[in-house]
Specification:
This protein is α+β, with helices and mostly antiparallel strands. Helices cover about 45% and strands about 10% of the residues.
């Protein structure tokens, strides 16, 4: 079901240079062995993630800033090719092609491309229609601010994956850079609860502990679930987790049962059956 956002926009275009700076600083500090460490992103190593981030920036600049869309039969979905298969194919082709790039070249290229990407995002009218809808939020058409916010979550969570894999203290899991990312992730809540049955007026609250955390609420209205800034009544279900659990939960599609096993620290108070829908939330293309 198509959702209409009633919450205020989350404006993050000005945060891209800071995240990139922390990422490049991290990459330049890594040993040769660190670049080949596995990450939580299934098959990807640290180097694969860095390459993927570069691809995202270059593709966005080429398509949105330069209006370049190659009609070569390989850069579009094939007949009957599902969207995720198409995206995975593009990602795999890029990561294979950039394996010969040195870590230094990758870090330098990310810094170069992301400087231009930040300029592009800051130049956009936040309230104009975006070139891509944010499907994981249930949107068929998005505003620029939401599309930019989605790109921010991509940049942030892949950078955090590298911090995680290399066991370095994160410099982005904080109030200034981490909280906006979680705030954007939580815009998937109404879409996640779209099929959840509940009486009108029921409220579900997601409480995330830690410096980047906060509380987010969805309320059952006559026409479906709506995200609200403040809960007008005690929640029917409250789901609590720490900030590290929160970003990992929503960035990889897993079954509800798998999430319950992987994140035993998630607590649900109140209507457990209703609260368990939070474990279905996915805030990335997956």
């Amino acid at each position: 079901m198509r959702r209409t956002m009633t919450m205020p926009p989350i404006l993050v275009a000005d945060l891209f240079p800071e995240v990139t700076s922390r990422l490049v600083e991290l990459l330049r500090s890594l040993s040769a062995e660190d670049w080949h460490l596995p990450t939580v992103s299934s098959r990807r190593t640290v180097k694969d993630i860095a390459s993927h981030l570069l691809d995202g920036s270059l593709r966005r600049l080429s398509m949105q800033r330069d209006g370049y869309r190659l009609a070569d039969g390989r850069s579009q979905p094939r007949a009957d090719e599902p969207l995720m298969d198409f995206l995975n194919r593009l990602n795999d082709e890029w990561e294979t092609g950039t394996r010969r790039l040195s870590p230094k070249v990758l870090a330098d290229l990310i810094e170069w491309a992301d400087t231009q990407l930040a300029d592009l995002f800051c130049s956009l009218d936040p309230h104009s229609t975006a070139i891509f809808p944010v499907a994981w939020a249930g949107e068929e058409r998005s505003k620029n601010w939401m599309d930019v916010a989605r790109d921010y979550t991509e940049k942030w969570h892949h950078t955090q994956q590298i911090f995680d894999a290399t066991k370095r203290p994160s410099t982005i899991m904080n109030r200034r850079l981490g909280h906006p990312c979680l705030d954007i992730f939580m815009r998937a809540l109404p879409f996640t609860f779209g099929s959840a049955n509940a009486d009108v007026g029921n409220v579900v609250t997601v409480a995330v502990t830690g410096e980047a955390g906060g509380s987010w609420h969805v309320e059952r209205r006559e026409d479906g679930w709506e995200q609200i800034a403040e809960s007008p009544r005690p929640p029917t279900a409250m789901v609590t987790m720490d900030q590290d659990t929160a970003w990992k939960l929503v960035t990889k599609r897993r079954s509800r049962e798998t999430n319950r096993e992987q994140f035993p620290g998630i607590q649900i108070i109140g209507d457990k059956a209703l609260g368990l829908h939070v474990l279905d939330m996915v805030s990335v293309m997956a």
